[in-house]
Write a structure and sequence with these properties.
single chain; about 300 residues; alpha+beta; 5-stranded antiparallel β-sheet; about 30% strand
């Protein structure tokens, strides 16, 4: 198939859009999708019951079909080859190195999976699917640039905390207990202010035997607070109305913290994803409070808190 440049592909697309305008077809032009490198558009109008064509078909066939087919084939061919080679490597790592004649030459990943399943069972197909999903997410997140959290989230507080070990949110979700090698502190989750602090490196004096709880200070004096951090424990990673927060490791050793909006899906698109941070030190805990009003990111060197109104 004859190669095509991006300039030629775009020129054909612009002719297609001009044709739609001239013929009065209603459409939405979303422009070039930077992730998939293709133009996205939506044409309004019903299928003709006689010809079984939509209003844009004539313009598409005349102005854009050839360029669109050549461009998509050109974009997908290297990706398909790389995906197939990756599948071969995946199964080889699990001892599947020999395939029936013609399987490798066919370039069919489905054939590879079918043969691997015949040897190891359905589990290997599930492992392969999970492996590819993780890779897709890493590649997608790797393209994101750091941005502030989207509305309605707003930064509530950001503290440097050297040697941070764990955090704990009170049952009323009004305070956060911070445990570090320096001692303990308490942050008000409604104002973002640090309302109590106590220095001291004797962790055993306030940590439980499992290190998953600690006694509070200041407004939390006498309370036992469950912890999330170095020793275990966790905060909720989603809210009832659909916000998610992810810890993603891409090509480098550093983790990335990604906030996903309710109408987004990290598994198939970069849209609706916000890269909040690329922590330079170890992530101790990240997640939401149970009332979903607060998002907290704790690393071994700092504490970041975002808040939103919740009805």
């Amino acid at each position: 198939m004859e190669p095509i440049t991006l300039e030629e592909y775009e020129a054909a697309y612009r002719r297609f859009i001009a044709c739609l305008q001239e013929t009065g077809v209603e459409y939405t032009d979303s422009g070039l999708d930077p992730e998939h490198q293709r133009f996205e558009y939506f044409v309004q109008g019903d299928l003709d019951p006689v010809t079984h064509r939509i209003p844009s078909d004539d313009c598409y066939d005349r102005e854009f079909a050839d360029a669109d087919m050549r461009w998509q084939y050109q974009q997908q061919a290297p990706l398909a080859e790389a995906t197939f080679d990756r599948a071969l490597a995946f199964f080889a790592e699990r001892g599947v190195t020999e395939f029936p004649e013609g399987y490798v030459e066919s370039g069919s990943i489905g054939a590879l999976i079918q043969h691997a399943v015949s040897i190891h069972g359905e589990q290997i197909a599930e492992e392969y699917s999970a492996h590819e999903d993780k890779l897709d997410i890493r590649q997608r997140v790797d393209k994101l640039e750091t941005h502030p959290a989207p509305a309605p989230w707003e930064v509530l507080a950001h503290f440097a905390v050297g040697g941070l070990l764990a955090i704990g949110v009170t049952e009323d979700e009004c305070h956060c207990l911070v445990v570090s090698h320096q001692g303990r502190s308490v942050v008000d989750l409604t104002t973002g202010e640090k309302v109590a602090s106590e220095l001291g490196d004797d962790l055993n004096s306030f940590l439980s035997k499992s290190n998953l709880a600690a006694t509070g200070i200041g407004p939390l004096d006498g309370q036992t607070i469950s912890l999330a951090g170095l020793w275990g424990g966790a905060l909720p990673l989603s809210t009832p109305d659909g916000w998610y927060v992810f810890r993603v490791t891409t090509n480098g050793p550093d983790e990335r913290i990604v906030l996903q909006a309710p109408d987004a899906n990290i598994y198939n698109s970069y849209k609706g994803l916000t890269l909040l941070d690329v922590p330079m030190t170890d992530v101790r805990a990240v997640g939401f409070t149970f009332d979903s009003a607060v998002l907290i990111l704790a690393t071994s060197s700092d504490l970041r808190i975002w808040r939103r109104p919740v009805v």
